[in-house]
Amino acid sequence: MYTQELPIRRIDHIRFFVGNARQSAYFYRNAFGFEVVAYAGLETGVRHEAAYLLRQGDIHFVLASPLRADHPDNHRLLIHGDSVQDIAFEVDDVEAAYQAALAKGATSAKEPTYHEDEEGVYVHAAIHTYGDTIHSFVNRDRYRGLFAPGFKPLDPERYSPRTFHPVGFKSIDHIVGNVELGQMDRWVHFYEEVLGFKQLISFDDKDISTEYTALMSKVVQGGQGRIKFPLNEPAPGRKRSQVEEFLEFYGGPGVQHIALSTDDIISTVRALRHNDVSFLHVPDTYYEMLPARVGQIEEDLHELALLGILVDRDDEGYLLQIFTKPVEDRPTLFFEVIQRHGSQSFGKGNFKALFEAIEREQALRGTL
Which site in 139, 141, 206, 316 is 20 to 30 Å from 7, CA atoms measured? Predict the structure, then answer.
């Protein structure tokens, strides 16, 4: 049955719930080149948490942490560690989107709420998705402020705008969720039925496997093609897969990685490496076979090999991508850097090399 797509404009922001928002903001600023532009906390009249708004290109991260022992989300830190709590959508009408989602089977996480200050009205509601991740619906058409009530422009004494250096990220390309064995189709159905997304592509364990592990993945797309969510589940293998490792250390389903796009991946990766961001490593033999597999590309293969950037081609063009190691001690959240030259796929030709690289890291952790 065809379900009409909800009128989602874009991904508005990603909210992370973390143990120390100020330190996390410093990390994302200095390592990933995000500008810290606003703050909410005790000084702005917010009593229960501190939050920082970070921006680079069209990407907005909110990093929030509790100020009190009775914060309702404190359990997240015990179960997940620092993690993605909310993938928020900007919509035309919050109440309409919320009611439509509930009518199609969604579970409420927050009823529509109107937050008002001297800058206008900010409207917000939320529904549950996999695990305890939520999707907020937000609208600030009647809000003139920087982000939302409670947020104020950051005092330059905290993070001087003169000393931050963006690395060239432009937008969120896709966000990947890991779910339990047997649950992938359930959540694909959720996005299709509740939000009107369409399945874009699927990969089975023959596409995504190595000698030891395998997983299955389906990609749903919405927001008139602007939002892409791959959903992974483990597949039977000889050893424990990366998805199983994630589910164990995350404590259930959640966001595995966020892909950030750039128009110049070589410059971006150079800057990230200069900032001490660690990436997965693929063997040199990967690049020996690359010209025959992907054909002519604009970038210099020697430079790609030095930086560890992967390449794949489909019928529409090619893409370049690279994956960080986990950004915290738990082997959970990591980031992908991606540049597209026409290709709209997800690097199927790189799956084997990528997953073998992840397995080498798992072996070092003793979790393979």
Answer: 316
